[in-house]
Amino acid sequence: MLMLVKTKLWNLAAILLFAFSLSIIACQPTEQSVKIEPKEIYPANMKAITVPLIKPSLEADRYNVAFLIMDGVYNTELTAPYDIFQHTIFRDSIKAMNTFLVANTHHPITSFEGIRMLPDYNYLKDQLPKIDILIVPSAEHHLDSDLEDKAMLDFVRATAKAAKFVSSHCDGAFVLAKAGLLDEVASTTFPSDIPAYQKMFPQLDVRSDVLFVHDGKYITSAGGAKSFEASLYLAELLYGKQIAQRLAKGLVIDWQLDEVKKVIIK
Question: How many domains does the chain have?
Answer without folding.
Answer: 2
